[in-house]
Amino acid sequence: MDIQALVSLDRTECAVQCASKKRILEIIAGIAAKNNPTIDQTTVLNSLVARERMGSTGIGNGIALPHGRLAGLENVIAIVVTSTPAIDFDAIDNQPVDIFFTLLVPEEQTEGHLQTLATVASKLSDKDTVKAIRRAHDSDEIITALQ
């Protein structure tokens, strides 16, 4: 899966003011619903929260990969958000998180979902990519950093 095929300006937000895990998930769900009329914000939020209850998606180094499955979704949707300041997200390294790369996947796409997560995690393990995302002043710069 090519990350460029997943990300778009209308689902990318830079330097969102946020102070809690719950609030960032609400913001992400709002972005998903705003840009896709077939997606219900509450359903997205419930899916993300349910996944977080199984264990934090904070993978360390200030990065989280929230994800959830949605019934009726036809294609994978990515939402990329950076926050200011970084927030407590119960990450595995106990460090605050400021980069959130969210994936919403069709309910039945188990294997594809795991491959997409692995691709995103690999891209975000590149230190130069992460530095460029953190330096971004707008959504365009975030998209460029992911290329």
Automatic annotation (TrEMBL):
<dbReference type="Pfam" id="PF00359">
    <property type="entry name" value="PTS_EIIA_2"/>
</dbReference>
<dbReference type="InterPro" id="IPR006320">
    <property type="entry name" value="PTS_Nitro_regul"/>
</dbReference>
<dbReference type="InterPro" id="IPR016152">
    <property type="entry name" value="PTrfase/Anion_transptr"/>
</dbReference>
<dbReference type="GO" id="GO:0030295">
    <property type="term" value="F:protein kinase activator activity"/>
</dbReference>
<dbReference type="InterPro" id="IPR051541">
    <property type="entry name" value="PTS_SugarTrans_NitroReg"/>
</dbReference>
<dbReference type="GO" id="GO:0009401">
    <property type="term" value="P:phosphoenolpyruvate-dependent sugar phosphotransferase system"/>
</dbReference>
<dbReference type="InterPro" id="IPR002178">
    <property type="entry name" value="PTS_EIIA_type-2_dom"/>
</dbReference>
<dbReference type="GO" id="GO:0008982">
    <property type="term" value="F:protein-N(PI)-phosphohistidine-sugar phosphotransferase activity"/>
</dbReference>
<feature type="domain" description="PTS EIIA type-2">
    <location>
        <begin position="5"/>
        <end position="147"/>
    </location>
</feature>
<protein>
    <submittedName>
        <fullName>PTS IIA-like nitrogen-regulatory protein PtsN</fullName>
    </submittedName>
</protein>
